[in-house]
Amino acid sequence: MNIHLFVTILSMFLIVYLFHNRDVFGPSSIVCGVFVFCSYIAIYSSQRLNLNLSFKAYSLLVCGISSISITSILISVFYKLNYKNTNFFLETNITYIKIYNRKLIISICSILFLISLISQIKLALSISGGSLSNLIYAYRMEMLSGTERIPSIVSNMETVNYAIGYLAIYILVNNFFVIKKVDSLLLLIIIYPCAIGILSGSRGEIIHYFIFFLIIYYYYYLIDKNKKNIDGKLILKIVLIFASMFLVFYFIKFAIGRQDQLGLVEYISGHLAAPLKLFDLFVNENHITKYWGEETFTRLLATFMKGSGTDLRYNTYATFRYINGLSLGNVYTAFRAYYADFGLSGIVIVPACISLFSSILYWNFRVHTLNQKAVINKNLFLYAYVSYGLFMMFYSNQIMEYMINISFLKMVIVWITFDYVFVRGKIKFK
Fold first, then answer.
1. d(CA 264, CA 352)
2. Which of 19, 57, 363, 419 has CA 20 to 30 A from 267's CA?
3. CA–CA separation, 103 vs 25, rounded Å?
4. Sign (positive or negative) of CA dihedral 391, 337, 361, 72
């Protein structure tokens, strides 16, 4: 079934690729493309991971990905019928985005970074001692177990720093294509939350930043070069960026205390193929959820159930598994959550809703002028943010984890405030 999955999803990718005007970063193109790659790696890793998908797992995966693809195609047809005079090729001029109150923003970000850093170091030292990697590892394990938590005010500060980081990435890319220089202030603002993420033993936010940057850069590249879709030069850049990312994260694991003995190839193949194996194991077992939507809307439900004595976190139900002496981890693709909570209907409806939302964002920024008045394009910004969840559907339910929760609402408030004060300059400080 591994080969069947590869061929089936590859066929879907080619279809949606055409409907997205040969755009590899259209919503369903992303999902299908990633699963094509993962299913190919699954063929390579079939013996090592004892990976031979059951017909049930194959059917559910195809059903879920088909739901995303069909919804995306329908939205594409709708926009093409209603915007017949639009070429969808992002033909516009890139305008420099001025940042107002530069001293204020760097002061805010620096203070937030220092407070977060001190708080993490203090908590880590209270848990363990030894080398930096041991401290990071111990800190992360305590966070995952829920026995230790940083103060909520510090957590909110980190959220603010992360939120500003996304805006900084967008403006940095925009302005780079105008002045052909990297703004050092914006780069520093981006480095702050990345450093916090590494020190806390988490790579999720850094990957999110990377995907966000990739999407923004890709579309600005098309505008700058007056291209309709991807070219060979850009493909090479993207391949090199992804290769560099895998190398960086392979070596980062040692810095954050993950001392497994896997080689680079095994490390990559394991991360890409293991979720398919885990999903296969899961769907062929009996699983009963205690609460409505507990796996799909984990972070949101955890917020509402706070103080009730109910421990609702991802790692409480997504157990670690091993095969042939190798750790498969505890990520089962995003489809595990939808199937666990809602059965076959969840495999169809939830991905369709995700595809509907992301497709509307996608076609909205392709239809309208990207940057006419030196402001942040909200549709492109949100699409780049959501794209992380589309890329990571092979891994886990990241799109719901990052959007359907209170933290996302806080980030939206930060984005609106930042845009008002630092981009539009409605309030000016000397």
1. 35
2. 57
3. 36
4. positive
In a domain, 94, yes or no: yes
- Please state the φ and ψ torsions of residue 263, each to the nearest 5 degrees: -75, 175
CB 240 within 8 A of CB 16: no
**pTM, entire model:** 0.89
Sorted by sequence, the CB contacts under 8 Å of residue 122 that are 6+ apart come out as none
Phi and psi at 343, nearest 5°, equal: 70, -150
- Domain-embedded: residue 277: no
Residues 6+ apart with CB under 8 A from 376: 97, 167, 170, 171, 174, 419, 423
Q: Where are the alpha helices (DSSP H) in 200-231?
A: 204-225
Q: pLDDT per residue over 163-215, tens digit each? A: 999 999 999 999 999 888 998 899 999 998 888 877 776 677 888 899 999 99
Could you list the residue range(s) of the whole structural domain that residue 361 is in?
1-266+346-385+400-430
- Determine, yes or no, domain membership for 395: no
Distance CA 280, CA 275 (A): 9
Tokens of 420: 């008002």
The answer to whether residue 180 is domain-embedded is yes
Interatomic CA distance for residues 398 and 197, integer angstroms: 17
Which residues touch 148 (CB under 8 Å, ≥6 apart)? Answer: 123, 127, 142
pLDDT at 223: 84
User: What is the pLDDT, as a whole number, of residue 157?
Assistant: 87
Cα(430)–Cα(421) distance, rounded to whole angstroms? 13
Tens-place pLDDT, residues 380-408: 999 999 999 999 999 888 888 778 888 88
d(CA 39, CA 1): 10
Give CA–CA dist 275/38, Å, rounded: 9
Number of domains in the chain: 1
Rounded CA separation 288/171 (Å): 46
Phi and psi at residue 322, to the nearest 5°: -135, 150
For residues 280 and 284, give the distance between their C-alpha atoms in angstroms, rounded to a whole number.
7
Q: How far apart are CA 49 and CA 278, in angstroms?
A: 10
Q: Cα separation of 60 and 280, whole Å?
A: 10
List of the chain residues with pLDDT < 50: none
List of E strands, 2-81: none
